[in-house]
Amino acid sequence: MRLLPKSLFGQLVLLLFGGLLFTQAVTMGILLQDRGDVILQGIRGNIANRVTAIVRLLNSAAPGQRKKLITALNSPELRVYLRPQSSIAPAINSESMMGVIIGKTIARQLKQQLAETPSIRVVVEKARMHVLSPGVHRSMMAGRGGMDSAMRSMMASGSHGATMVEAVQIEVRLKDGSWLALIRPIPERLTGWPDRLLLILAILLLGVLLISFFTVRRITRPLRTLSRAADELGRDINRAPLSEAGPSEVSEAARAFNCMQKRLARYLNDRTRILAAISHDLKTPITRLRLRSELLGEEEPKEKFQRDLDEMESMVTATLDFMRGSTDQEKAQPIDMLALLESLREDAVESGSRVELEGLALAPFPGRPLALKRCLGNLIDNAVRYGGEAHVRIADSAEQLVITISDEGPGIPETAMDEMFEPFSRLESSRAADTGGTGLGLGIARNIARGHGGDIRLRNCPEGGLEAELRLPR
């Protein structure tokens, strides 16, 4: 199973995302630990000090005054009761880890501050607490009269308006044997996840990821440009050079690519010029020999001599066509492939050949018209020459244009398929005109197809004959 994506862009984004996620998780853990320490210090000091003060106050107060003191001590943040006996177990438990830590720290500090009181019990669990409306809360804050009225309303309401919240429940045994019970709710923001902190970290992570995404995209864009340029170089050696702007590494790569393109273009142009010069030099003696053959008296030697000269001239012309197949300067333009094939079929029919055409081209193909006409003409000529007739089929789609040309000939051995595209390669041992052409037709056709980004593939048909498939990408 492949974990990393194939593209460099995907791998960089994935590694950056994984690294950022890991560092954010570690950072969040450290922040949560520090936050917990601060919260513990605040809660421990606040609750323990208040409980200690209340216990000492009630221990010093007369039994008749305790009820009034408890009523005055009650508030939304701290509920105070007197009980004849303890109602909670000595163990400290909680549904959350933070609750357990809070309970243990409060119990430890209370035992230090109330050393004279051995019976102290602390538990952190869900308790039913009254939720006061904002109006009641304001009346409690208005003064003693408002406080007493609000507390009496709250106490008389029973469980109405109460909700279950996590709270610290403390029980301390007083000097007279009764138990003081105190319930202090723990705000949910302290025991739950810190939503604000998580939101800040999420925004930070998203911001860094977006910056990383655009940065990686900017870094990898020159690689995609270089890849497209290399692909286009096989179609057009004289394509526009790459821009050499950008960082030094990108500029050096673009400069090296442009230099390579210039050298390849110069090499191909020099080779073509040399062959053109050779062709020109060969045509001169061929023309002289053709004139001298006219002076021959006997017809039979004269015809053989002229046939050899025609074959020599055909080989020179075909060689030049083969060389020009990859360096053609013809401009690309939209081509109606169906019309092009119909014109080739009409030419073949006029010369006495049989060519069948089926299928449709969905849209014009952007290519070089004369080069593609030569490519398809060579394939059709081969099919007619070796199979007696040609069957042409067009299959078009949004991705590619496929033209298949089949014949009813004997086919060729599988081992000779690739060899047939080599220059001057033919199945016959001779290159006489009556047994075929010069052996350059398929090579020229494939050069033209590859110059358009496509290719040609040969295969034997199951029912007999050879099939040439031309694939051109849209």
Strand order of the largest sheet: 6-8-9-11-10
C-alpha end-to-end distance: 33 Å
As a whole number of angstroms, the C-alpha radius of gyration is 47 Å
Low-confidence stretches: 131-160, 429-435
Q: Helix- and strand-based class?
A: alpha+beta
Shape: rod-shaped
Question: In words, what does this structure look like?
Answer:
The chain has 474 residues and is an alpha+beta fold. Among the domains are: 22-195, no CATH class; 331-473, Heat Shock Protein 90, CATH 3.30.565.10. The protein is built from 12 helices and 11 strands. The protein has helices at residues 8-60, 66-73, 97-113, 134-142, 144-156, 188-191, 195-233, 248-293, 299-324, 337-350, 369-387, 441-451, and strands at residues 79-83, 120-130, 162-173, 179-185, 333-335, 354-359, 365-367, 389-396, 400-406, 455-460, 466-473. The protein has a 5-stranded mixed beta sheet. The longest helix is centred in the first third of the chain and has 53 residues, at 8-60. Residues 131-160 and 429-435 have low confidence and may be disordered.
